[in-house]
Design a protein that fits this description.
The protein is an all-alpha fold. The chain contains 14 helices and no strands. The chain is globular, with a radius of gyration of 18 Å. The relative contact order is 0.18.
Length: about 250
Protein backbone atom coordinates (compact mmCIF):
# COMPACT_ATOMS: atom_id res chain seq x y z
CA UNK A 1 0.00 0.00 0.00
CA UNK A 2 2.87 2.41 0.71
CA UNK A 3 4.10 1.71 -2.83
CA UNK A 4 0.68 2.52 -4.29
CA UNK A 5 0.43 5.81 -2.41
CA UNK A 6 3.98 6.71 -3.51
CA UNK A 7 3.07 6.02 -7.13
CA UNK A 8 0.05 8.29 -6.89
CA UNK A 9 2.18 11.06 -5.45
CA UNK A 10 4.76 10.52 -8.18
CA UNK A 11 2.01 11.07 -10.74
CA UNK A 12 1.48 14.52 -9.29
CA UNK A 13 -1.67 13.83 -7.27
CA UNK A 14 -2.14 16.22 -4.39
CA UNK A 15 -3.85 15.35 -1.14
CA UNK A 16 -6.81 17.47 -2.29
CA UNK A 17 -7.24 15.23 -5.34
CA UNK A 18 -8.76 12.58 -3.10
CA UNK A 19 -11.09 14.78 -1.14
CA UNK A 20 -14.44 15.36 -2.84
CA UNK A 21 -17.03 13.72 -5.07
CA UNK A 22 -19.97 15.74 -6.46
CA UNK A 23 -23.47 15.29 -5.13
CA UNK A 24 -24.89 11.79 -5.43
CA UNK A 25 -25.41 8.63 -3.39
CA UNK A 26 -22.86 7.96 -0.66
CA UNK A 27 -22.42 6.21 2.70
CA UNK A 28 -25.09 8.41 4.31
CA UNK A 29 -27.76 7.46 1.76
CA UNK A 30 -26.70 3.96 0.65
CA UNK A 31 -24.35 2.39 3.22
CA UNK A 32 -24.59 -1.05 1.57
CA UNK A 33 -22.80 0.30 -1.52
CA UNK A 34 -20.50 3.05 -0.23
CA UNK A 35 -17.87 3.40 2.48
CA UNK A 36 -17.28 7.14 1.94
CA UNK A 37 -19.37 10.28 2.07
CA UNK A 38 -19.36 12.68 -0.86
CA UNK A 39 -17.12 15.01 1.13
CA UNK A 40 -14.56 12.21 1.49
CA UNK A 41 -14.87 10.90 -2.06
CA UNK A 42 -12.54 10.96 -5.04
CA UNK A 43 -12.25 14.06 -7.22
CA UNK A 44 -11.51 12.33 -10.51
CA UNK A 45 -11.25 15.65 -12.36
CA UNK A 46 -8.22 16.57 -10.24
CA UNK A 47 -6.59 13.18 -10.82
CA UNK A 48 -7.27 12.48 -14.50
CA UNK A 49 -6.32 14.38 -17.65
CA UNK A 50 -9.16 15.29 -20.03
CA UNK A 51 -10.15 12.57 -22.52
CA UNK A 52 -8.32 12.68 -25.88
CA UNK A 53 -9.53 15.19 -28.43
CA UNK A 54 -11.13 13.70 -31.55
CA UNK A 55 -8.29 15.07 -33.71
CA UNK A 56 -5.49 13.69 -31.50
CA UNK A 57 -3.11 10.78 -32.08
CA UNK A 58 -4.39 9.17 -28.89
CA UNK A 59 -7.89 9.06 -30.33
CA UNK A 60 -6.54 7.26 -33.39
CA UNK A 61 -5.35 4.58 -30.97
CA UNK A 62 -8.80 4.52 -29.36
CA UNK A 63 -10.33 3.91 -32.78
CA UNK A 64 -7.81 1.18 -33.62
CA UNK A 65 -8.48 -0.60 -30.32
CA UNK A 66 -12.22 -0.44 -31.00
CA UNK A 67 -11.72 -2.17 -34.35
CA UNK A 68 -9.50 -4.76 -32.71
CA UNK A 69 -12.20 -5.35 -30.12
CA UNK A 70 -14.75 -6.16 -32.79
CA UNK A 71 -12.57 -9.08 -33.90
CA UNK A 72 -12.03 -10.27 -30.33
CA UNK A 73 -15.78 -10.61 -29.69
CA UNK A 74 -15.69 -13.98 -31.38
CA UNK A 75 -15.13 -17.11 -29.32
CA UNK A 76 -13.97 -17.50 -25.73
CA UNK A 77 -12.65 -13.95 -25.29
CA UNK A 78 -15.99 -12.54 -26.38
CA UNK A 79 -17.78 -14.75 -23.85
CA UNK A 80 -15.52 -13.38 -21.11
CA UNK A 81 -16.35 -9.83 -22.19
CA UNK A 82 -20.08 -10.56 -21.85
CA UNK A 83 -19.58 -11.96 -18.35
CA UNK A 84 -17.63 -8.86 -17.41
CA UNK A 85 -20.42 -6.65 -18.77
CA UNK A 86 -22.89 -8.01 -16.22
CA UNK A 87 -22.39 -5.39 -13.52
CA UNK A 88 -23.11 -7.42 -10.34
CA UNK A 89 -20.81 -10.27 -11.42
CA UNK A 90 -17.39 -8.87 -10.51
CA UNK A 91 -17.16 -11.55 -7.81
CA UNK A 92 -17.79 -14.28 -10.42
CA UNK A 93 -15.19 -12.84 -12.79
CA UNK A 94 -12.51 -12.87 -10.10
CA UNK A 95 -13.44 -16.08 -8.27
CA UNK A 96 -11.35 -18.47 -10.36
CA UNK A 97 -8.05 -16.56 -10.06
CA UNK A 98 -8.74 -15.91 -6.38
CA UNK A 99 -9.00 -19.66 -5.72
CA UNK A 100 -12.55 -20.09 -4.41
CA UNK A 101 -16.07 -19.19 -5.51
CA UNK A 102 -16.76 -15.78 -3.98
CA UNK A 103 -20.41 -15.71 -2.96
CA UNK A 104 -22.66 -15.11 0.02
CA UNK A 105 -22.53 -18.76 1.08
CA UNK A 106 -18.84 -19.62 0.67
CA UNK A 107 -17.26 -16.31 1.62
CA UNK A 108 -19.86 -14.03 3.26
CA UNK A 109 -17.39 -11.46 4.60
CA UNK A 110 -15.43 -11.25 1.35
CA UNK A 111 -18.67 -11.11 -0.63
CA UNK A 112 -19.91 -8.26 1.54
CA UNK A 113 -16.61 -6.41 1.08
CA UNK A 114 -16.87 -6.60 -2.72
CA UNK A 115 -20.60 -5.90 -2.88
CA UNK A 116 -20.15 -2.76 -0.80
CA UNK A 117 -17.48 -1.56 -3.24
CA UNK A 118 -19.76 -1.55 -6.27
CA UNK A 119 -20.93 2.03 -5.85
CA UNK A 120 -17.74 3.27 -4.22
CA UNK A 121 -15.55 2.28 -7.16
CA UNK A 122 -17.84 2.20 -10.19
CA UNK A 123 -19.68 5.40 -9.31
CA UNK A 124 -18.04 7.67 -6.76
CA UNK A 125 -14.44 7.19 -7.95
CA UNK A 126 -15.40 8.28 -11.49
CA UNK A 127 -18.44 10.52 -10.92
CA UNK A 128 -16.87 13.97 -11.25
CA UNK A 129 -15.04 13.30 -14.53
CA UNK A 130 -18.00 11.45 -16.05
CA UNK A 131 -20.25 14.43 -15.39
CA UNK A 132 -17.74 17.03 -16.56
CA UNK A 133 -16.70 15.45 -19.85
CA UNK A 134 -19.78 13.35 -20.72
CA UNK A 135 -17.78 11.65 -23.45
CA UNK A 136 -19.64 9.81 -26.21
CA UNK A 137 -19.33 6.03 -26.04
CA UNK A 138 -17.97 4.09 -29.07
CA UNK A 139 -21.19 2.21 -29.82
CA UNK A 140 -23.12 5.49 -29.76
CA UNK A 141 -20.63 7.25 -32.05
CA UNK A 142 -20.65 4.39 -34.55
CA UNK A 143 -24.35 3.56 -34.04
CA UNK A 144 -23.27 -0.06 -33.68
CA UNK A 145 -24.29 -2.95 -31.42
CA UNK A 146 -22.31 -3.95 -28.32
CA UNK A 147 -21.57 -7.46 -27.08
CA UNK A 148 -24.19 -7.03 -24.33
CA UNK A 149 -27.23 -5.12 -25.68
CA UNK A 150 -29.08 -5.10 -22.34
CA UNK A 151 -27.07 -2.09 -21.11
CA UNK A 152 -27.09 -0.03 -24.29
CA UNK A 153 -30.10 2.18 -23.63
CA UNK A 154 -29.17 2.86 -20.00
CA UNK A 155 -25.56 3.76 -20.73
CA UNK A 156 -26.43 6.22 -23.49
CA UNK A 157 -27.22 8.64 -20.68
CA UNK A 158 -23.89 8.04 -18.90
CA UNK A 159 -20.49 9.43 -19.88
CA UNK A 160 -17.82 7.12 -21.27
CA UNK A 161 -14.79 8.66 -19.51
CA UNK A 162 -13.49 7.18 -17.26
CA UNK A 163 -14.75 3.59 -17.29
CA UNK A 164 -16.47 2.72 -14.02
CA UNK A 165 -16.40 -1.02 -14.80
CA UNK A 166 -12.63 -0.82 -15.34
CA UNK A 167 -12.16 1.15 -12.11
CA UNK A 168 -14.13 -1.44 -10.18
CA UNK A 169 -12.49 -4.48 -11.81
CA UNK A 170 -8.94 -3.22 -11.30
CA UNK A 171 -9.57 -1.92 -7.78
CA UNK A 172 -11.23 -5.14 -6.59
CA UNK A 173 -8.34 -7.11 -8.13
CA UNK A 174 -5.89 -4.96 -6.13
CA UNK A 175 -7.80 -5.67 -2.94
CA UNK A 176 -8.13 -9.41 -3.62
CA UNK A 177 -4.42 -9.67 -4.39
CA UNK A 178 -3.74 -8.07 -1.01
CA UNK A 179 -5.92 -10.69 0.68
CA UNK A 180 -4.45 -13.61 -1.30
CA UNK A 181 -0.93 -12.63 -2.44
CA UNK A 182 -0.13 -16.22 -3.45
CA UNK A 183 -2.48 -15.80 -6.44
CA UNK A 184 -1.74 -12.13 -7.09
CA UNK A 185 -0.56 -12.47 -10.69
CA UNK A 186 -3.66 -14.38 -11.78
CA UNK A 187 -5.96 -12.01 -9.89
CA UNK A 188 -4.37 -8.87 -11.32
CA UNK A 189 -4.34 -10.25 -14.87
CA UNK A 190 -8.05 -11.01 -14.63
CA UNK A 191 -8.74 -7.56 -13.20
CA UNK A 192 -6.82 -6.03 -16.10
CA UNK A 193 -8.78 -8.15 -18.58
CA UNK A 194 -12.05 -6.89 -17.12
CA UNK A 195 -11.12 -3.42 -18.33
CA UNK A 196 -10.19 -4.66 -21.80
CA UNK A 197 -13.57 -6.37 -21.97
CA UNK A 198 -15.19 -2.92 -22.00
CA UNK A 199 -13.26 -2.09 -25.18
CA UNK A 200 -14.15 -5.44 -26.75
CA UNK A 201 -17.83 -4.90 -25.95
CA UNK A 202 -17.78 -1.44 -27.52
CA UNK A 203 -18.87 0.32 -24.36
CA UNK A 204 -15.61 2.22 -23.82
CA UNK A 205 -12.60 3.63 -25.60
CA UNK A 206 -9.18 2.37 -24.54
CA UNK A 207 -8.38 5.73 -22.93
CA UNK A 208 -11.57 5.43 -20.82
CA UNK A 209 -10.32 2.11 -19.51
CA UNK A 210 -6.82 3.39 -18.77
CA UNK A 211 -8.27 6.31 -16.83
CA UNK A 212 -10.66 4.00 -14.97
CA UNK A 213 -7.77 1.88 -13.73
CA UNK A 214 -6.00 4.95 -12.36
CA UNK A 215 -9.16 6.18 -10.64
CA UNK A 216 -9.72 2.72 -9.14
CA UNK A 217 -6.16 2.50 -7.82
CA UNK A 218 -6.44 5.95 -6.26
CA UNK A 219 -9.71 4.95 -4.60
CA UNK A 220 -8.12 1.83 -3.11
CA UNK A 221 -5.31 3.91 -1.62
CA UNK A 222 -7.86 6.30 -0.14
CA UNK A 223 -10.06 3.50 1.24
CA UNK A 224 -7.18 2.22 3.35
CA UNK A 225 -7.68 5.31 5.50
CA UNK A 226 -11.43 4.61 5.85
CA UNK A 227 -12.37 2.93 9.14
CA UNK A 228 -15.50 1.17 7.83
CA UNK A 229 -13.65 -0.27 4.84
CA UNK A 230 -10.72 -1.43 6.96
CA UNK A 231 -13.05 -3.14 9.43
CA UNK A 232 -14.68 -5.15 6.63
CA UNK A 233 -11.33 -5.81 4.93
CA UNK A 234 -9.94 -7.28 8.15
CA UNK A 235 -13.02 -9.50 8.50
CA UNK A 236 -12.47 -10.72 4.94
CA UNK A 237 -8.79 -11.41 5.66
CA UNK A 238 -9.68 -13.42 8.76
CA UNK A 239 -12.24 -15.40 6.79
CA UNK A 240 -9.67 -16.07 4.05
CA UNK A 241 -7.09 -17.24 6.61
CA UNK A 242 -9.60 -19.72 8.02
CA UNK A 243 -10.55 -21.04 4.57
CA UNK A 244 -6.90 -21.35 3.62
CA UNK A 245 -6.16 -23.30 6.79
CA UNK A 246 -9.05 -25.62 5.93
CA UNK A 247 -7.51 -26.24 2.51
CA UNK A 248 -10.37 -24.60 0.58
CA UNK A 249 -8.29 -22.06 -1.37
CA UNK A 250 -6.81 -23.29 -4.65
CA UNK A 251 -3.35 -22.18 -5.75
CA UNK A 252 -3.64 -20.81 -9.28
CA UNK A 253 -0.64 -21.30 -11.56
Amino acid sequence: MKTLVFCLIALGLSANAIAFAPEGKDATSKPESYYSTNAEGLDSIAILPPPPAFDSLEFLLDQAKYQEGLQLRKGERGEMAVLDAISPKVNESLSKPFGIDINAENTPELYKLITNLRGELGDMACRAAKRKYFRTRPYVMYNAPTCYPKDEERLRENGSYPSGHSARGWAVALILSEINPANKEAILKRGFDMGQSRVICGYHWQSDVNAGRLAGAAAVAHLHANAAFMEQLNKAKAEFARLQKEGKIKKVQ
